[in-house]
Structure formats: C-alpha cells, structure tokens
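re: ur question from yesterday

yeah so i grabbed the chain u mentioned. its 316 aa long if i counted rite. heres the sequnce exactly as i have it in my notes:
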Amino acid sequence: MTNQSGAATRQDDLIQPFRIEASGLHGRLVRLGAALDQPLKAQDYPDPVATLLGECLTLTAGLAAALKFKGTFSLQAKGDGPVRMIVTDATSDGDVRGYAQVEGDLPDFDAIETAPIPRLLGAGYLALTVDQGPAAERYQGIVDLDGATLGECVHHYFQTSDQFSTAVKLSVARDDNGCWRGGALILQRSPEDENPMTQDDAEEAWRRAVILMGSCTPEEMVEPSLNANQLLYRLFHEDGVRVFDPKPIAFACKCSPDRMSAAVAMLTPEELREMTVDGAVTVTCQFCNATHIFDEAALRDLRLPGAPDAPEATPT
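ran it thru and got these structure tokens back, copy pasting raw so excuse formatting
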C-alpha cells in the first residue's frame, strides 16, 4: 500500500479516500465511532431504528465526500411505515447529523433484520440533495424506496440516475462497550477514470473490485482494532491500493437558541396555544435532543400572536 501524503493513520471518525492502482477505480472507506454514537444515543432509538439511521449517517458522510462542493449534502428517506422519515446531512466541512421520526409500533426484530426498508420505512422515496446556499442552484435526485436494505436502495438510485457506477457496502453495530460504530465502503467508476484498459478489461476489473469489496465482513467494517489502511490493504493489495489524506468527521448540530426562537416565531396562534403548557413552550431539537424552554417573558419578547399579553395579528 502507498500513501500519497505519508500522513499518520487516523483510527476513527474519518473518510479514507483510496485508489486501486491496477484499474484506476476510486473509493472511500468511512469509519465512524463517536460521530455516530452521539446522535444515535441522543434520542434513545430502538436498536433496529438506530441501526438504519446509523447506516444513513455513514452513507451520507461517504457520498458527500465524493462531491466537490461547499454546502450541505442530505439524504431523506420517507415512507408509510412505523419509521415515517429519516433525515441525515453532512457538510463540506465534515459535520454530520441525523434523526428518525418513529410514529408506530415496530415489527419483531427477526422480521426487520432481513428487510429493514420495507419493514421500517415501508413504501416511499429516497431523496439525495446538494444545497450550496442561495447563490447556487440546488440539486436533488429522487427515486422510490426499491430494495430490502439501504444498500440496495442506493444501488437502485445510481442505476436509475444515469450517473457513474457505484457499489456500496454498509455496516452498523454496537461494540463490546455498547457504543455504536459504523462503516461504509463506497467504490465508484466515473467516465474520468484514467486507465489504458479496453472496455472488456475495465468491466472485468470493476467486477473483480466489487467481489473483493464484498468479501469484507460486517464485523471487519466496524472493528476498532482494524484501522482503515489495514482493511483496505487486506481487500485490494493484490491490485495495488493507494490511500490519500483522510478527512475527519464529527457529529455537530446546527441548533441554537436563535434558531429555536426563529422556529417558535413561525408558529401560528393556534399552534402556539396547543404547545403552551403552564405558560411555556418547550422546543426540542430532533437531531441532538437539546431543549429550550420559552417562558411567558420569552414569548412576549418574541411578540408572537397568541403569546401572553401579545397583540393579535392584524390582517393586511
């Protein structure tokens, strides 16, 4: 294995870019520890929901790292099952966050394990969005939730979007200390791949790389004692694998008192009355579970229609 920069190997919470020298194929290995454990434990999700949300977070971090952009890449899975929606996003700076909305009883674990998408999300859609702010056009791709697992749904997305070939392998599990860990292998072949191969040889090289990637076990994907470079070497050393500077990943939420105030300010008088308990409104962040209480004085300061002593809104 060769290292483009000679940088020290980072053990956790990273995206490790790599290139298979014999074929010119490129990819990323994602390893998440605390960056995954924190958001999954923040809301105390049932294990099957935490596992699926963890896969979405790990996948989102890996897909975002493939893009040359400044902004936020997000994944949204929405369905009619007991898990109504999963939202995850990753910024170009390496911050990730996510949450799951659960509104029904979950089926037995054995039924979920083999087909988490239809059992948890049901019928719905998968949307991938790149948002670079108001100065740039937002890009979004949407496909039906077609597959038993998240990996199958992502493969369906890339097959139907006429983009470059992509193979994905995901794993999320608890370690011996009960902490959540996640791993993702993402292998891609784009038109820009530079190699002198014929089309037949290139197809064979792609099939070989996908088979080698598939030989990685779920346990190896999240094993803390097996670092990213060791795992990549085990998988691709016969074809030569070059690693580049790893990118750090961290869990970070965008919520703040100002953002929560803005959310409360958007409530209608009816919504405000419904949410008011003992004269106060409690707002809880869906991503990090942080809570902010707006008492009567705070609601008056926001001058909301329906707040204590606040004037009713006058139609314009």
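noticed a couple things. DSSP finds eleven helices and 16 strands in the chain. also The domain at 12-251 is CATH 3.55.30.10 (Hsp33 domain).
anyway ttyl
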